[in-house]
Amino acid sequence: MLYKFRELWEQYQSFQRRLDVGAKTLLLEEGQRSEHYIYIEKGAVRTYFNNNGEDKTVQFFFEGEGLMAIESFMNDAPSPIAIETIEPSVLYLLPKPQVLEMVARLGAQLVPLLVQRQIHYMHEFVSFIRDTPEQRYQQLLTERPQLILRVPQHYIASYLGISKVHLSRIKSKLAKGKRHF
């Protein structure tokens, strides 16, 4: 499946716009309409929303991954999230008409990818309800160590739903626990 997607993606190269951008570049503002699929060749991106003046990070994306504000993109509605680079990044933007054409050409072959993404989000949702912030941080350490190394701590704290101070306490507690072994 991935091979077919890459092959098809290359067929749409003439429609893609390459962006070389710095860290903290806003790619989509909350409330704007999403008109592009964003592919990350190099760098890191986060999605977030504003909650009473405070950013709440929803997700992180890295090299070889793509994203869009799906609700906005598919429903031609204002985006409930913003998209911003975390690091200097090389991105490719594919406009909505070509994305929809590509999706139509792939058809049912996209279903496993969509199901995999849905399962991922469901696991995150359940973890947010069931697990403590410390358990969620430990999961990040185990399952996504590159995130811990590349993403600023205040974004990780926001993603975990805690303050930077609370994250520092968790990290300190985990470091002390390792020293006792």
Task: Summarize model confidence as the mean pLDDT.
Answer: 90
Oligomer class: single chain
Poorly predicted runs are none
Instruction: Give the overall form.
Output: globular
End-to-end CA span: 45 Å
Helix content: 40-55%
Please summarize the sheet with the most strands: 4 strands, antiparallel
List the strand order in the largest sheet.
1-8-3-6
Structural class: alpha+beta
CATH topology of one domain: Jelly Rolls
Using only CA atoms, what is the Rg? 18 Å
Secondary-structure element order, N to C? HEEEEEEHEEHHHHHH
Number of helices: 8
CATH class of one domain: Mainly Beta
**What is the CATH homology-level superfamily of one domain?**
Jelly Rolls
**Count of beta strands:** 8
Can you describe this structure in just a few lines?
It is built from eight helices and eight strands. The protein has helices at 2-11, 70-75, 96-106, 111-130, 133-143, 145-150, 153-160, 164-179, and strands at residues 17-21, 26-28, 36-42, 45-51, 54-61, 66-67, 82-85, 89-95. The N and C termini lie far apart (45 Å).
Detailed description of the structure:
It is built from 8 helices and 8 strands; from the N terminus they run αββββββαββαααααα. The chain is an alpha+beta fold. The chain has a domain at 2-107: Jelly Rolls, CATH 2.60.120. 23% of the residues are buried.
List keywords for this structure.
four-stranded antiparallel sheet; cNMP-bd_dom_sf; cNMP-bd_dom; 181 residues; Jelly Rolls; 8 helices; alpha+beta
Per-chain topology:
Elements: H1 2-11, E1 17-21, E2 26-28, E3 36-42, E4 45-51, E5 54-61, E6 66-67, H2 70-75, E7 82-85, E8 89-95, H3 96-106, H4 111-130, H5 133-143, H6 145-150, H7 153-160, H8 164-179
Antiparallel strand pairs: 1-8, 2-7, 3-6, 3-8, 4-5, 4-7
